[in-house]
From TrEMBL:
<keyword id="KW-0732">Signal</keyword>
<dbReference type="InterPro" id="IPR010496">
    <property type="entry name" value="AL/BT2_dom"/>
</dbReference>
<dbReference type="GO" id="GO:0016787">
    <property type="term" value="F:hydrolase activity"/>
</dbReference>
<feature type="signal peptide">
    <location>
        <begin position="1"/>
        <end position="21"/>
    </location>
</feature>
<protein>
    <recommendedName>
        <fullName>3-keto-alpha-glucoside-1,2-lyase/3-keto-2-hydroxy-glucal hydratase domain-containing protein</fullName>
    </recommendedName>
</protein>
<feature type="domain" description="3-keto-alpha-glucoside-1,2-lyase/3-keto-2-hydroxy-glucal hydratase">
    <location>
        <begin position="34"/>
        <end position="228"/>
    </location>
</feature>
<dbReference type="Pfam" id="PF06439">
    <property type="entry name" value="3keto-disac_hyd"/>
</dbReference>
Amino acid sequence: MKIRHQLYALLLTLGSFGALAADNQLSQQEKNDGWQLLFDGKDLSQWRNFKQDGLSDKWVIEDGTIKLSGKGGGDILTKAQYQDFDLKLDWKIAEGGNSGIFILVDETGSQIYSHAPEIQILDNERHPDNKLANHLSGSLYDMIASPAASHKIAGEWNQVRIRLEKNQLTIWQNDVQAVSVEIHSPEWQQLVAASKFANWPGFAANRSGHIGLQDHGDVVWFKNLKIKELK
């Protein structure tokens, strides 16, 4: 009983300092550090469909998550644009599912991915787009493969962090660094040249843009979307 009381007191203490934050909330430390919520668990007012003012009803709020409930919801993006930023979010994919997170999105191309690099979301075991290592979850799609240590099975929550600062792109999945590359560098140009994007005019040319979430026709969930603009 004494140990139970001690643990309870510790949790209260941590909570009072903001060390613990519930889903879709900012801890006091995050607030102090300048983080902002992109989703508070209650509304989708910061999001809209690609090239549209509104949001499809296929994108719903379910138990404090953003859920793409079925095919036809369309890709969505933040209303705001970001240049240098630190982004954190959690995602979960249905069995056999595929989705993605886009950065530096613009709306001048025909598709959300026309100019935007993608961080892959995938059921690595079941989805047919699992033949290449750089198509697995946490990868910079078709460019840099994520390590196996960063992968989880479908139906489990994954934590992703994407940091872009002065063209340096770093991606972590489940606390494992998956990507570290400088956009526009010679290394980057080589990666693009060896990828499907080699002949895509304007790919990754933007210095700022929207954050996007993909409708690949499969059920996917997101929560704890937080961003910090880097000055």
